[in-house]
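call fold(seq) -> tokens
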Amino acid sequence: MRGVPGYVWTDSPLHRLPAAAKLVGLVVCAALVVLASSPLELLAAAAGVAALVAVSRVGWRAAARAAWGLRWFLLMVLALNALLFSDVDPLFSLGPAHLTSSGLAQGVRIVVRTLLVVVLGTLLTATTRPQELVAGVRRLLRPLGRLGLPIEAAALAVGVTVQFVPTLLRESRQLMRAQEIRCGNVATRGIMRRAVSYIRLLVPMFVSAVRRADELSVAMEARGYRLSSPRGSAGGGERRKRS
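ret:
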């Protein structure tokens, strides 16, 4: 169990909370973060997330790991909003790009909201083991099962995502290191060559994801997993008896 991806082995009030309560709390906190617009509201939201990180005892490095991985995407979002959001009272103009204070403020709001939501999601996976998360999703969706909705499929999708997303991210980092060894440091190239290098990573990442999905389906089929029945182990399926 020590190899659970993303989970931080420690004891904290967040670790002891039921998974269903943490899922509801994540939705509520994320909604509050998205609704925050003024600098004071964003500061209060950031203070609340910082308090949750401190209470969780997972450490700032673990909490910010996923956010750090999005740094180039967030910088691009900030630049696009700052340069293309508005052309009224520009601080700087270059062709169709207009750097405005309103665009810069909009970009900062989006980046801060995204960072806080990502940290909240990281806290959920860092304080909740996959089987607990699957059980929490199943418990929250149980009333919808009476309407005929596939709650077992939803719970299984959550469990598979939590298990394999960290693995795929780790493999993508290994592919980037291998590319740097063969072709040099990508960060020192021009923008176009850097973009082409990143696009080339998509093919092996896609192949790896498909291969892992195929291996998982074969393993589940070999163990007699059936999604039609809610009975069974933590995965929610039923194991057929082998003669």
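The first strand starts at residue 92 and ends at 94.
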